[in-house]
Amino acid sequence: MKFAFAGIDFLGSVFDGLVEAGWTPVKLFTRPCDAIYDHNDVVVAQARRHRIPIQLSRILPDDIERLAKEHGRDVALVVAGYPWLVRGWHGRVRYALNIHPSPLPTGRGPYPLFRAVLDRYESWGVTAHVLAEQGFDTGDILAQDLFPTDPRESHETLLIKCQMAARRLALGPIGRDLTERWRRPEPQGDGSYWPRVSDADRTLDFRQDVEAVLRRIRAFGRIETIAKLGDNRVFVAEAEGWCEAHRHAPGTVIHRHRRQVVIAARDGYVLLTRWSPLPLSEVPHLGR
């Protein structure tokens, strides 16, 4: 089957899986990326290797109509990690689907991985669903790949698990069986929408216990949490900690050693091991 891929490297494993399943790519729809938090160099390289056109602007109905005229109405539009709502595919192409990194209907929204770790979900998953034109992540379900999570799950480990699950979906039920699954999708029913996180969500509260603080740091990983050290803010990518009775006020800096900082939490101490006075987006190099 021919397909156009709309996305970035975040779920670029879908592109790989579909090609491995025997599908033929015909176009890449992507977007400019900052090369800090978001990347598209891998999917762009894939598109160039397959010698297919690349479009950086938002998909419009005319783009879908042109896609159908050039490649036939049986071409599939596969969306994975694309920020814009895609409209106008009905009556133009037969298949349009989205790959979303949550076990829908739980976790609709732009990026549910942070909250999945924060809320200690015991299992997670990736969902392939019919692309809905009325709202993000609400279309009928075509297939899901569910997997257990670990009590020490982090943003990075959950992201990789989602990428692997997305590839399995592309290589298996979507890549091998889309036509049959398209005939019998399952409605989602009621669900939950998780909005984009704010700086308040990323800010550490040392009045909490050590485990809660470390879980928030793991939940954001290299996207960084924010810690207040006296009058200053620092951006934290990694930390360790331990429980120990003490009389220090939560948030007090107890000890420093080179780049390591020990801060009192409610029931112990948190050791910042990888942090910066600047957010990642303002650091001139990424090797910190």
UniProtKB/TrEMBL annotation:
Keywords of the record: Transferase
One matching Pfam family: Formyl_trans_C
Ranges of residues in domain Formyl transferase N-terminal: 60-163
UniProt-listed InterPro entries: Formyl_trans_C, Formyl_transf_N, Formyl_transf_N_sf, Formyl_transferase-like_C_sf
Record-annotated Formyl transferase C-terminal domain positions: 197-274
Superkingdom of origin: Bacteria
GO MF terms held by the record: methionyl-tRNA formyltransferase activity
Protein name from the UniProt record: Methionyl-tRNA formyltransferase
